[in-house]
Amino acid sequence: MSSRPEFAENRAMYSDGWTWHPLTLQALKEHVVHGRVLISSRNGQPSTFCILLDEDKVLTMGFVAGGPRDVGKLIRMLRFLMFRKKRGKLRILLPSKSPLVRALERSGFEKVAKILVYQKFLG
Fold it and tell me: For the chain, does the N or the C end have fewer beta carbons within 10 angstroms?
């Protein structure tokens, strides 16, 4: 996971919508246990990975990694999931320079907000 370029682009963080958290192995395991991690594969190999949170009629993709084409397929699956779970919105949080932004725009998404994340180490 930490070898993916998206890991560095996200500064090793994921979002639950309003709060950003360190994306550690322990956090990932916790999300897997609670069924919040989706992985798709191509040719028997993982191609896309996301952390998906489901709250307040909104599905939030707080971290996503994969190629634009594979992420497009994952988004189509999530749209079906939205319909099935009767959720009103799918929110995807990405770094502003992510190559996935273009793929989302091609899939009909629109940029509605910009979130700035500040970090300070205490010590």
Answer: C
